[in-house]
Design a protein that fits this description.
The complex is a heterotrimer of chains A (528), B (346) and C (76). In chain B, 48% of the residues lie in helices and 7% in strands. Chain B is α/β, with parallel strands linked by helices. Chain B has a single domain, classed as Rossmann fold (3-Layer(aba) Sandwich), CATH 3.40.50.1110. Chain B has a 5-stranded parallel sheet, sandwiched between helices. In chain B, α13 links the parallel β4 and β5. Chain B starts with a helix and ends with a helix. Chain C has one domain: Non-ribosomal Peptide Synthetase Peptidyl Carrier Protein, Chain A. The longest helix of chain C is centred in the middle third of the chain and has 15 residues. Classes of the chains: A mainly alpha (528), B alpha/beta (346), C mainly alpha (76). At the A-B interface, α21 of A face α1 and α10 of B.
Chain lengths: 528, 346, 76
């Protein structure tokens, strides 16, 4: 069930009504049932996967919690005989056993993900190594949201291990945390600490929340259906024939893809967060106008935020602050390599994160290259920091300059889009060729001689895209200035509000690229 | 205050529904230019429903029989409920739909679609189904005919299907926003032009000539429906040279008709008896008859109908005769206009 | 505390660490800074801050960070 299908809308609508008819205490049960029903819709055979992960997470969390209970009881009973040293030793041994459970569960959960997502990649690379033909015999369909729920349960287990909160003792409640619809589809990745409070508490009907949620969903549909799905025709033409569409076309493809990626992904997130808001459930934000970023680092603070935070908390910090790495840094410093000592922790942590991020995006070399390039350039710009500082010292007005700000934003956007070409062409060598062609075969005339109309997008399509992008740009600009457009509209008189939202609804309804009539819009009558 | 609020909500809801309704009408294809077949299904509902004979089937009925001739020559009051590529299953539902309004004495079903069994196509589905009035029958017909990409919801709200036409509206969409011109003559699609049939290809050999059991099932359902309602069912094969009518198909259909005591007439085999001349009587090289051909065929078939079904001559009914008088005027008008256009084109 | 302020000032000479209490919230310290900071603290003060202690409350001000360090020293 795609998030833009009629079924999704019917399903979501029915759930919303039922939800507020259900007694508050039982709302979470309804959500669980709906989540599993939704999951079953997308493929009943996938239920096994999510159940396995939930069960494994549940068992491990209960075991870890049980050890903690045992420890506390032990300390209480032997309060008088235990000294500090004893306690420390005992704690360490409990921690060790908890750690064993944690590792077991992580290996199991990630094992499922790895086999399904990366099995084919590994097998095909191994067979290529031995010169065997790559016939992809090992291709399993990806269960819905497997990356998201695996990451979410991992975060939960690590937090438990770190003692941030106690485990959820009710299996069904935990199941809801793992499977919560609609978050399951494409994130955001939530933390148990925050989400559990939202999920299990009942919610009264709050007209404003529901209206705001539905409005946000509508905006998400607009981004997805009117912009992303419309531009897709042009994207497919260019990436489908990279040998013909080189040079300027590759550049156009790059820009199109950057637009498509953001509109599709953030639009989907708007739908998810909006629907959750209508249920009274607050989810973490996942995007903060990423194309307004002034640097790559800034961009990664604004794009897919929950995933970045996940990587930061559960990969970057643990690796770069691991005792071994810190000891190594110390050794380097005493040996006189101060620069290296200063860098080693950040470098290793950072490259590890980006290697994982690349692999997470897809099991292929183009993603790994993409990840490492991101990591590499982040470190490079870190190294250039002193240079910038010098620049700013010489031109103190520069940081406040509007023009300079815009230059940085455009530069970052182009750079990020360039890196995304690895994703767009889904093939590392094709991407490198396209990049080279953008420089050697660039031809400005393409923009003016009507060639752009050969990409599967008509002049009307371009017009709709341009106007829609202007709208999103304007709204983003307001948000960037801290103004909530929804609040502003809500402050208007009733008829204005109706007209605004109904207008947006009509835009989606009429200009959305959905349904059977979209590309087969010509009603061809054959002689029969 | 409360009443005022509800009034505002009501006004807003009314405004929204009205604009949506208008938009839906606007973007739905009008079928007034080239593809007039899209209007046939809907035109039926505006007629007086006391027909003696109802034709159901695909182009083999609506391009080959002229109800005007049947009236003029035999006093038979008939209507053709045909549509482009009407599947056998759809013919069944069209009949069921017709029975909601009237009970004719005779139903003529063109059997080509039974063995021909073409896969459903979205555009043809739309032309057959969009024009039907809402009922359980229409619902069932949609469910039965939908292709994999189609969705029931897009039939219930055609706006969802046709929304993309908003950027390609033509003058017709505005001209015919609230009503369309009559395009058929009691379901008959008149064509005056001629293109002789030449080199009609023989049918390619098929791997299997057995008519699909599922298709025969629909024929059986049509037969039972007629039986239940005391309607005489007549099976016909129209004299179209193409799609090719295999002897094996003929045998199976004839055998079915015989075993159930149904009259079955293969007009393709009787084309000479009907006086058809494929050099002058077809407008597209033998696929469909033009007006001259349809009139000859109707004269022949009318006699057969009267003989087999014992239909009374109703020309003495003055109200009915007056209606047909009017039909005849539009019939002649259409013919003259087409003849004029052809002459002007030459 | 002085050592800590020294480390911080070396990283960001432009920030007044004695008064600022939104180091994380205002994105003055990013993840690279935090990791470098932890390495320096481990180096100069022999205290290991582990990943689980990296939460905004502990890093928003020099004072909070100092309290964390004292707490960790106490546990050692």
């Amino acid at each position: 069930m795609s998030i833009t299908s009629y079924y999704f809308l019917l399903f979501a609508g029915a759930l919303l009504i039922l939800y507020y008819l259900t007694p508050k205490k039982a709302q979470w049960i309804l959500l669980l049932a709906a989540s599993y029903a939704f999951y079953a819709f997308s493929g009943i055979r996938y239920l096994g996967y999510i159940l396995a992960t939930t069960l494994c997470t549940y068992v491990a969390s209960r075991k870890m919690g049980g050890l903690k209970d045992y420890q506390e009881a032990f300390f209480r009973e032997n309060k008088d005989i235990l000294d500090r040293e004893d306690k420390k030793l005992y704690k360490a041994s409990v921690k060790k056993r908890q750690r064993a459970w944690l590792i077991l569960a992580l290996v199991f959960n990630f094992g499922i993900l790895a086999v399904i997502k990366y099995g084919n990649f590994v097998v095909s690379n191994i067979s290529a190594l031995f010169g065997a033909p790559n016939d992809a015999f090992f291709r399993l369909a990806l269960p819905l949201g497997i990356s998201f729920y695996t990451f979410q349960t991992t975060g939960y287990l690590i937090d438990l291990y770190r003692g941030e909160y106690r485990e959820e003792k009710n299996f069904f409640r935990l199941s809801l945390f793992v499977s919560f619809f609609p978050q399951l589809i494409q994130g955001p990745i939530s933390r148990f600490g925050a989400l559990s409070k939202e999920l299990y508490a009942g919610h009264d009907f709050d007209g404003r929340q529901v209206a705001f949620g539905l409005q946000r969903m509508l905006y998400g549909f607009f981004k997805k259906l009117v912009i992303a799905d419309r531009i897709m025709a042009g994207l497919a033409t260019i990436s489908g024939d990279p040998a013909t569409y080189t040079g300027t076309y590759a550049f156009v493809g790059m820009i199109f893809y950057a637009i498509d990626l953001y509109m599709d992904f953030s639009g989907g997130i708007d739908i998810v967060i909006g629907f959750s808001q209508a249920l009274g459930i607050t989810l973490p934000e996942n995007f903060k106008r990423p194309y307004f970023a002034v640097s790559l680092k800034d961009y990664w603070h604004r794009w897919h935020i929950t995933l970045c935070n996940w990587f930061k908390d559960y990969v970057f910090y643990p690796i770069s602050t691991s005792p071994k790495l810190l000891a190594r840094a110390k050794k380097l410093k005493t040996a006189g390599h101060a620069g290296l000592a200063r860098r080693i922790t950040v470098y290793i942590g950072n490259l590890a994160v980006w290697l994982f991020t690349g692999i997470w995006h897809g099991a292929a070399w183009n993603f790994i290259i993409w990840g490492l390039l991101n990591g590499g350039f982040l470190l490079l710009s870190q190294e250039m920091e002193p240079l910038y500082r010098k620049l700013y010292a010489r031109f103190p007005k520069l940081p406040e300059s509007r023009v300079f700000h815009i230059v940085r934003v455009v530069r970052t956007f182009l750079f990020v889009s360039l890196l995304c070409m690895f994703d767009y062409y889904a093939n590392a060598s094709v991407t490198l060729h396209a990049m080279a062609g953008m420089v050697t075969e660039f031809d400005l005339a393409v923009f003016f001689n009507g060639s752009l109309l050969s990409l599967g997008l008509s002049a009307v399509d371009y017009g709709i895209l341009l106007l829609s992008l202007c709208l999103v740009f304007f709204i983003s600009l307001q948000q960037e200035r801290g103004i909530s457009v929804r609040e502003k509209i809500a402050a208007q008189a009733g008829p204005v509000r109706v007209l605004v939202w109904y207008g947006l609804f009509l835009c989606v309804l009429l200009f959305g690229a959905y349904g059977i009539g979209y590309d087969a819009s010509q009603f061809i009558y054959n002689q029969f | 205050m409360r009443a005022k609020k509800w009034l505002a909500v009501g006004v807003a809801a009314l405004f929204i529904l009205a604009t949506l309704w208008l938009l839906q009408r606007l973007v739905m294809p009008k079928y007034m230019g080239d593809v007039v077949e899209g209007n046939f299904m809907a035109e039926y509902y505006d007629t007086e429903k006391d027909h003696d004979v109802i034709f159901i089937g695909d182009c083999e009925v609506y391009e080959n029989f002229s109800p005007q001739v049947l009236w003029d020559e035999y006093g038979i009051n008939s209507y053709i409920r045909g549509s482009a590529q009407q599947l056998a299953s759809q013919s069944y539902y069209v009949l069921e739909d017709t029975l909601r309004y009237e009970k004719p004495d005779v139903v003529v079903f063109s059997v080509l679609a039974v063995p021909y069994n073409e896969p459903a196509k979205e555009s043809y589905n739309r032309m057959t189904l969009d024009g039907m009035r809402w009922s359980k029958t229409k619902w069932d017909a949609i469910q039965t005919s939908m292709t994999e990409e189609e969705q029931l919801l897009e039939y219930i709200f055609p706006l969802l299907r046709y929304h993309s036409r908003i950027t390609e509206l033509t003058k017709d969409d505005f001209t015919y926003l609230f009503g369309r011109d009559l395009v058929s003559h009691n379901g008959y699609y008149m064509r005056v032009d001629a293109r002789p049939a030449e080199n009609v290809p023989d049918g390619r050999p098929l791997a299997d000539y057995t008519i699909d059991a599922g298709q025969m099932e629909w024929l059986e359902k049509i037969r039972l429906l007629c039986e239940e309602n005391g309607i005489k069912l007549v099976l016909v094969k129209a004299p179209s040279l193409y799609p090719y009518w295999y002897d094996e198909w003929e045998e199976q259909i004839a055998a079915y008709a015989e075993s159930h005591g149904l009259p079955y007439i293969n007009l393709l085999a009787l084309k000479d008896a009907a006086g058809l001349d494929y050099r002058t009587d077809t407008y597209d090289g033998g696929l469909h008859l033009n007006l001259a051909g349809a009139e000859k065929l109707s004269r022949y078939f009318g006699a057969y109908l009267r003989e087999t079904c014992g239909l009374a001559d109703r020309r003495a009914e003055s109200a009915l005769a007056a209606r047909w008088e009017e039909n005849a005027r539009w019939y002649d008008e259409d013919r003259i206009r087409q003849e004029y256009e052809i002459a002007a084109g030459e | 505390m002085d050592t800590l302020l020294e480390i911080l000032n070396e990283m960001h000479p432009d920030v007044d660490f004695e008064t600022c209490d939104t180091l994380i919230d205002d994105e003055i310290l990013d993840s690279f800074d935090i990791v470098s900071l932890i390495a320096e603290i481990s180096n100069q003060m022999d205290v290991t801050i582990s990943a689980k202690d990296i939460i905004p409350e502990n890093f928003n001000s020099a004072q909070a960070l100092w309290e964390l360090i004292e707490r960790l020293e106490d546990e050692e």
